[in-house]
């Protein structure tokens, strides 16, 4: 986390649907049409770094007026939420967004969505358990992991592969940590036996 | 769209994080992002000049919005540039600590005496034509950081701060010479390291040469 955090910067590049509340003569390029003015009511997808601040109320004017109104982005749409409710493990989060959780966290700063928060929390908890399982399997070789599997970044072959491909960045980090931890533990145990 | 180039730069940074080596510096991309910032600045200034002192953001919201967008785009680009360079300098520092030479990184087999215990006389060619993956500023940074680290390490002559953390099993090891490394001086006299020869030497004397890839440790 922080100003220099590469993942955070990439999260801010995610596109958010925005609706402009005023007509801007010079901002047509945001709608891929530089010669025409950007009309009030136009819907455009803007990166989070821009959308977030355009959606803030304008200081000194009446309440809840802003340059633009934002909505929840597609990765957090009702469809995805429904799928997550049904089975968190069956949804490849990475296909929604490589920074799914950090995007969600940022959006929940802006929206008050209690239900979404609950769904996401449960999603993470369920998936984390699954991740830990796969990480252990890969590290100890108990799941039929060959030497080649262990050498690769995601040390698991077979059934879990598809699930692991669907991990977002945060989950990947978690997986790697769990994997490395189990592996180091095993190495240490082997070392103890030897001497 | 403004900020797209900066985003590309950060994607490069992201890739760099997962690599062991340092990919080439994106001179072109960095220049273009800086250019974008300059253009935006010019644009903002021209708007403000046209309006003069009469500009009131509350009444002229469309202009205020335009200016906000340019400002945010500039700020975003700045952050992308800084994050990209920070990622690289972090990597450089890591490389210095692990004992990499700036010459190795520059892809040059320069003649260079290894500091520390082994006063190696390394023979090689001056490959000036090889393109460096570092920008000139980064090379400078690395050189100065190496000096800084050397000065810091110099305070403790009996401990090698960048040495291996693994305790050695034996004081002496078998090594095979992979590249001609010239003659080195040890406590037990001089050894001439010619390619494909094999020696039984004290580990401390050759540790650096192993790290540099001149020697291979035989178990």
From TrEMBL, chain A:
GO terms for biological process: mitotic DNA replication initiation. CDD domains: GINS_A_psf3, GINS_B_Psf3. Keywords: DNA replication, Nucleus. The keyword Transferase does not apply. It is found in: Nucleus. Gene3D superfamilies: 1.20.58.2050. GO terms for cellular component: GINS complex. Component of the GINS complex. This is DNA replication complex GINS protein PSF3. It comes from Coniochaeta hoffmannii.
UniProtKB/TrEMBL annotation, chain B:
Its main location: nucleus. GO terms for biological process: DNA strand elongation involved in mitotic DNA replication. One of its GO terms (cellular component) is GINS complex. It is found in: Nucleus. Keywords: DNA replication, Nucleus. Residues 170-218 form the DNA replication complex GINS protein PSF1 C-terminal domain. InterPro entries: GINS_A, GINS_bundle-like_dom_sf, GINS_Psf1, PSF1_C. Residues 108-137 are annotated as: Disordered. Residues 44-156 form the GINS subunit domain. Pfam families: PSF1_C (PF24997), Sld5 (PF05916). Belongs to the GINS1/PSF1 family. Required for correct functioning of the GINS complex, a complex that plays an essential role in the initiation of DNA replication, and progression of DNA replication forks. GINS complex seems to bind preferentially to single-stranded DNA. The GINS complex plays an essential role in the initiation of DNA replication. Component of the GINS complex. This is DNA replication complex GINS protein PSF1.
């Amino acid at each position: 986390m922080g100003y220099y955090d590469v993942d955070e910067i990439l999260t801010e590049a995610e596109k958010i649907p925005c609706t402009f509340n005023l007509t801007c003569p010079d901002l047509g390029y945001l709608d891929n049409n530089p010669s025409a003015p950007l009309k009030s009511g136009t819907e455009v997808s803007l990166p989070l770094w821009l959308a977030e601040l355009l959606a803030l109320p304008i200081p000194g004017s009446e309440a809840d007026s802003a340059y633009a109104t934002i909505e929840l982005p597609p990765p957090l749409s009702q469809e995805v939420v429904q799928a997550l409710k049904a089975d968190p493990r069956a949804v490849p989060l990475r296909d929604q967004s490589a920074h799914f959780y950090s995007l969600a966290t940022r959006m929940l700063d802006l929206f008050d969505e209690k239900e979404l928060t609950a769904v996401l929390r449960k999603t993470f908890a369920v998936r984390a358990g699954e991740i830990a399982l796969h990480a252990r399997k890969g590290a100890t070789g108990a799941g039929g992991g060959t030497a080649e599997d262990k050498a690769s970044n995601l040390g698991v072959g077979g059934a879990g592969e598809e699930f692991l491909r669907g991990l977002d960045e945060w989950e990947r980090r978690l997986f790697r940590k769990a994997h490395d931890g189990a592996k180091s533990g095993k190495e240490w145990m082997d070392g103890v036996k030897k001497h | 769209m403004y900020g797209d180039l900066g985003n590309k730069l950060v994607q490069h940074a992201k890739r760099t994080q997962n690599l062991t080596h340092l990919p080439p510096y994106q001179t072109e991309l960095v220049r273009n992002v800086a250019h974008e910032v300059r253009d935006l600045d010019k644009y903002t200034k021209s708007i403000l000049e046209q309006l003069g002192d009469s500009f009131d953001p509350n009444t002229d919201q469309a202009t205020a919005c335009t200016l906000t967008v340019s400002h945010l785009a500039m700020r975003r680009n700045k952050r992308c540039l800084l994050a990209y360079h920070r990622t690289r300098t972090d990597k450089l520092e890591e490389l210095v600590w692990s004992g990499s030479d700036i010459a190795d990184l520059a892809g040059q087999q320069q003649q260079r005496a290894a500091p520390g215990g082994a006063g190696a006389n390394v023979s090689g060619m001056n490959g000036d034509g090889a393109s460096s993956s570092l920008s000139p500023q980064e090379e400078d940074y690395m050189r100065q950081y190496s000096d800084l680290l050397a000065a810091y390490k110099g305070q403790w002559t009996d401990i090698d701060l960048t040495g291996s953390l693994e305790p050695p099993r034996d004081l002496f090891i078998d090594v095979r010479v992979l590249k001609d490394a010239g003659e080195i001086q040890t406590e037990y006299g001089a050894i001439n390291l010619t390619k494909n020869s094999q020696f039984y030497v004290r580990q401390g004397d050759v540790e650096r040469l192993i790290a540099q890839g001149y020697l291979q440790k035989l178990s």
